[in-house]
Each structure stands twice: as structure tokens, then as C-alpha cells.
């Protein structure tokens, strides 16, 4: 089973992923968690470039680098784990590419973004995607003390378009489960657990 978490920074993805993993392990599941970009030697090298605020990267190059990191992670780690009936949880997947590089950067037309996503994911689609929705104002409050990486320095208008992208995907994709990221940690976790009972 492939579970993905999406949302802007500060939405609580890392916290909820850790809680979900603990819950699933306690129920006897084999669980592996990966972040995007990252998870393999090659993917982590690409992550270093993508998040370095001192490096200028063309929007199309950025999209292809994220996709390259994803392709390696899926081929090297995720597909073999899914074949072993493990539960794989991803902190971001190609929906982030659509939202950030498609809507946010406007790097290339959305239909081309979707095509690249399909190729880079080796045709893999999440079973369920939890979108922790958060306003820009709340995100700013939660991340005020964090050092900003290259992506986080993109500006308010960029992130407004990113949120629009996530909201559009949530309307289009049945696998999306929208959860209010401003709710308490306990309430969000319970909604996630309750939703997974049907799987």
C-alpha cells in the first residue's frame, strides 16, 4: 500500500507521518517512510542541489530534477517494498511536483507535467493521499523560526498558486482526503486512522 502526504510547509506532515507509522507498526504492519526528494544516495544528492538557496535553477530543470530523484526512489526502494506487501508512506509525491512546479513555477503546461509525473513514477499511483490543508498565514506562523531553503524563499504569490494547485488536485482526484491542517495533532491523526480503516 502506498500512502502519500501533501501540503505546504508547516501543515504537520512530518508529525502525522510519524504518528501513523507508529500506529501501523503496532498493528503488525511492515512500514517504510521516505521523504521527497530523497531516500536513495542519488536522490539525496539531488535534494541537496534543489534546496540550496545559493544555487539558481531554471524552472524546467527544477521539475526534471525532482522527477529524477523520484524515479530513482521508486525503482530502488518503493517498488521492491510494495512487492513485499509493505506499507510505504511518502512525505510528498508527484502531486507536489504538479502543485509547486506546475502551478507555482508555471514551468511547463500542466498536461506535460502530468506526463512527466507518470514516467517518473514508473506508472505508480498512491492508494490514498492525505492533503493537510493550511493557510499561508498559519504556515508563516508555524515556520517563522525555520531557516528558509530555496523553495521556501519563492514568495507569497508563488505559494498562493501552490495551494490553488493542491486544492484543484483534491477536487479532481478521488484518492485525495482533505484534512484541516490547523486542527489539533490528535484530531488530525484520528481522522487519518479512521479513513484508513476502509483499506
CATH architecture annotation: 3-Layer(aba) Sandwich
Low-confidence parts lasting 5 or more residues at pLDDT below 50? Answer: none
Oligomeric composition of the shown chains:
single chain
**Do you know the CATH topology?**
Rossmann fold
The CATH class is Alpha Beta
- Helix/strand order, N-terminal first: EHEHHEHHEHHEH
Strand count, sense and barrel status of the largest sheet are: 5 strands, parallel
Strand order of the largest sheet: 2-3-1-4-5
CATH superfamily: P-loop containing nucleotide triphosphate hydrolases
Structural class: alpha/beta
The number of helical elements comes to 8
Task: Please count the beta strands (DSSP E, at least 2 residues each).
Answer: 5
Helicity, in percent? 40-55%
Walkthrough of the structure:
- The protein has 199 residues and is an alpha/beta fold.
- It has a single domain (2-196), classed as P-loop containing nucleotide triphosphate hydrolases (Rossmann fold), CATH 3.40.50.
- The protein contains 8 helices and 5 strands.
- It has a 5-stranded parallel β-sheet with strand order 2-3-1-4-5, sandwiched between helices.
- α3 runs parallel beside α5 (110-120) and α4 (94-104) crosses α7 (156-172).
Amino acid at each position: 500500500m502506498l500512502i502519500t502526504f501533501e501540503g505546504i510547509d508547516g501543515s504537520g506532515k512530518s508529525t502525522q507521518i510519524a504518528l501513523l507509522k507508529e500506529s501501523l507498526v503496532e498493528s503488525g504492519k511492515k512500514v517504510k517512510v521516505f521523504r521527497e526528494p530523497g531516500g536513495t544516495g542519488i536522490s539525496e544528492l539531488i535534494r541537496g542541489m534543489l534546496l540550496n538557496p545559493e544555487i539558481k535553477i531554471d524552472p524546467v530543470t527544477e521539475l526534471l530534477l525532482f522527477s529524477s530523484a523520484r524515479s530513482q526512489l521508486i525503482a530502488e526502494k518503493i517498488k521492491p517494498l510494495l512487492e513485499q506487501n509493505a506499507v510505504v508512506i511518502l512525505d510528498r509525491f508527484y502531486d507536489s511536483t504538479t502543485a509547486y512546479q506546475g502551478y507555482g513555477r508555471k514551468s511547463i503546461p500542466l498536461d506535460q507535467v502530468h506526463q512527466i509525473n507518470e514516467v517518473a513514477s514508473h506508472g505508480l499511483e498512491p492508494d490514498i493521499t492525505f492533503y493537510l490543508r493550511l493557510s499561508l498565514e498559519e504556515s508563516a506562523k508555524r515556520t517563522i523560526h525555520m531557516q528558509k531553503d530555496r523553495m521556501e524563499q519563492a514568495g507569497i504569490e508563488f505559494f498562493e498558486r501552490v495551494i490553488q494547485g493542491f486544492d484543484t488536485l483534491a477536487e479532481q482526484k478521488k484518492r485525495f482526503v482533505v484534512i484541516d491542517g490547523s486542527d489539533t495533532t490528535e484530531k488530525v491523526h484520528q481522522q487519518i486512522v479512521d479513513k484508513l480503516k476502509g483499506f
